[in-house]
Each structure stands twice: as structure tokens, then as C-alpha cells.
Amino acid sequence: MKNRFAIHKDFTLNGCNYTEIDALLTDSKSISNEVFLFLNDWFDAADFIKVETSGSTGKPKLIQLKKSAMIASAKATGTYFGLSKKTSALLCLSTNYIAGKMMLVRALVLGWHLDMVNSSAHPLDGIKNSYDFCAMVPMQVQNSLAQLKQIKMLIIGGAPVSFNLMNALENLETSCFATYGMTETITHIAIKPLNLSAQKWRNNPISNCFELLPNINISIDYRGCLVIDAPKICKELILTNDLVKLIDTTHFEWIGRFDCVINSGGVKISPELIETKLAKYIPCRFFIAGLKNDYLTQKVVLVCEGETQDFSHIPFGEILKKYEQPKEIIFVKKFIETATQKINRNETLNFLE
Description:
Number of domains: 2
CATH topology of the largest domain: Rossmann fold
CATH class of the largest domain: Alpha Beta
Distance between the termini: 54 Å
CATH superfamily of the largest domain: ANL, N-terminal domain
Number of helices: 10
Mean pLDDT: 90
Largest sheet: 13 strands, mixed
Order of helices and strands: EEHHEEHEHEEHEHEEHEEEEEEEHEEHEH
């Protein structure tokens, strides 16, 4: 017996309008097995979906998400961006993970016209259509810069947006937004404009800050970490390890991860703040970390991906405080990544130590 989660009458997938669940399930098999399996779970009698977390801050785990909460999240995104029925959207993320699943849910619930392509590093190759909305990870965006004019509104998540990519997006007509969220919050609960087009669309919002979606409340705990109150998504408070600065009731600035803080000689250092200062000087992927040190407890190191490079041009002493300056630069041929291509800092550091 199918549950109450019906298909919006305006929903289309790859150009076909579906009003019957069985027809959608049958045709989804020809798209991919992962799409079929998700839709089969979505329309079954259970009131939840099992989803695996990304594993970016620990081992991946299987959690249950209420379908009603996923619908609430979809509606919040639609309200925030003004995306109603017949919105044209492109799904180019894997539906094995929450970001891809939610693109399907938004389309089903809001009545979008959704086209789906295989998840790849170059999602717009061979695509001739234009779309109102799309979600990508930074690598896909970097490889699609020349084609982004086909997308009116783009959300970018899954990993931080680099300094170089930010510069590349600055003057594009596409409105580009960074997202803040996690599997537990059913993708994003906050949005940050990344370029002039996005800032204009949001009527010049507070710069460099995330803005909450509807029906989300936030506070900070004793550590200075974000606490999320999203009653339509989760009955309990969501406690994070993200250090933030609250600007007002609907805006916050992300500082870094509490579990990444470096203790160097008793001084607490946020590696993400150092990374922001160094971003425009370092062309490769990198991160700042603390390695065990008998004298300092932890010493600040700069870990870079790829072959050894000469960084003598970087004015470390001018842009960084004394205690922020790396005591060592380490080059790693290839970073260890999570299943969703995020840098796995802990595993990479374990390999070094």
C-alpha cells in the first residue's frame, strides 16, 4: 500500500509528466537503479527514509529522516528562492546522498520540471537547455564556468568554495549561493550569496554571512558552536561542532570547526581563519592543521596537495599573526577523501603521523 506522499500534478522528469506512482517507478528503472531505489522507498508505507551521512567529520552512519521533514525542507527552499510549480531544474548530483535525493523531493513536492543527468565532474557538457535552478559541488562548478549562463540560480555545497572559484563567480549573471547544512538538517538550513548577482537578488544582504531559511532558529552553546532549532525538520535541537558568530536572529558568520581548533602553546587557533587569509596565495588544495609537538602541544602546519612547490612568495609574516604562521609545510601527493569527495583531514593527518 502506497503512502500519502503524492506526486504534484505539474511534476515532470526528463520531459515526461507523471501523475501515477507506478508509472514513475517503472520508468525510473531505465534512469538508474539508485533513482528507482530511492523513489521506491519514498512512496512506500514507511514515514522515514534511511540516509547515510557524508563522513566528513567522522565515520559515515545510517540515520532515519522523516519524510514529512524532507517535505518541509523542500518547501522552505521553494519559499526562500521563490521557486514554485513548473520551475525548470537540473539534477546532476548522485541520489545516493541527501543533496541528490532532495532535488528529487523538491521536484515531486513543488511540481518542478526536472531533468536528470549522470553525476560527473562536467555536468553541463552536452546540455543545451537552460534551467531556473541547479545544485552542484564546487568541483562541478569549476568545470562548468563557461556554461553557467545556462543556470539562473545555483546553490553550491558539499565543500568550501575556494578563493579562486569565488573570484571566477563574481561577475557572472548566474546567481550563486553557498549552502550551510548537513544530512541531519536535510541539506541546507542557511544560504550565503557568493557573487554580485546573488547579492542583488537578495537585496544586498549582510555580506559574508549565512541567512536562515524559513522556520529555522539558531543559538550558540558554551563552546561558541551553532545550535539549530528546526521544529519542522527535527523535534530535538541539533548540536553542531561549527564555531559561529551570530550577527542577528537570521544571520550568522561561520568561523570554523571546534574539533579542528589547534592548541599551540596554550593559544587556541582556528585553522579555517588562517586558510581564508592564505587562499589567494596557494593555487592547490590545502588545509591548516595541528600536529603533535612536545614543546607547543600542537604545531601549526600547512598541508598541501600535489608536488612540492616554492612558497617563498607568500608573505606569511605580513598576513598572519606570529602564532598563526606554519612551522612546517608538508606536501601530500593526494589527499584522502570522503565518499562525497570532501577532504578527510583526520585520515590525511593520521597518514602523516
